[in-house]
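Internal tracking record. Fields below are filled automatically when a chain is submitted to the structure queue. Please do not edit lines marked as system-generated. If the sequence contains nonstandard residues, flag them in the REMARKS field before resubmitting.
Queue: standard
Priority: normal
Entity type: single polypeptide chain
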Amino acid sequence: MNQSDKYELILYLSRILYHLNKKVLLVDYAENEALLQSITIPETLKENNNYISYRGIDFIQGKYFTWKMKQEYDYILMDFGYLLAHEGMLRCSKVIFVTDLQLHNLKRIKNMEYVEDEDKCLVIKDVFQCKIKPEYIISQIGFPVKKDNIFILYQDSVDLKSKVSCQYDHKFAFTKLSKPTRCFLKDFTRMIANHFEEKEINLAYKKAERGL
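SYSTEM-GENERATED OUTPUT FOLLOWS
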C-alpha cells in the first residue's frame, strides 16, 4: 500500500487473514512508522532477529526485510509510505494506492504507470461533501484502474476512533465500522484470497472485528 495513512486498513486485513489460518508478515517502509507505532506492547512481544511477533502476526521494519522471507508466509502486507518508486512494488501481486481529497496527496500518486494495470487498486479515504468529488480524483490520477478495484471510504467518526485506537489499545477491534470500510475489507480479502468461500471470509471478519 502506498501514500496517505492506511495503517489501520493493513492491520484489519492482517487480522482477517490470520483468522483464515494464514501466516502473515507486516513490513513497514513508511517514514512515519505508523505500523510500528501500532505494535507497542513490550510485555507481550517476542523479538527475534529484528522480528516482532504479536498475536500470531509477524512484523518487521523494511530495512530488515529480504525477499527470502516470502517463502515463510502466505501473505506479506507492506506499507511503502510515500515511496513512489520502490522496487518492491514491482514484486507485489496487488498495489493499493491510498489518497484522500487533498491535492498534495493526489499529486503523489499521479501517473504511476510502472505497476501493471490489473495489479492496481485505488482507495479514496475521508471523502466528505464538498466541491471536490471522488470522480474528480479518479479522473486526475493519470493511470487506469478497473472499476471493481476502486473503493471510496467516507469520513466517519467510528472509523476514526477505531483507527486511533489501533495505536493505543492492546488489540485491534474494529466493530461498527462504516459500511464502505467494511465492504472494502471484505472485497479486498476476496480479491487476494479468492479460494475461500464467502462464509469463511465472513466468519474470519467477525472474529477479527471483535479483536480476537
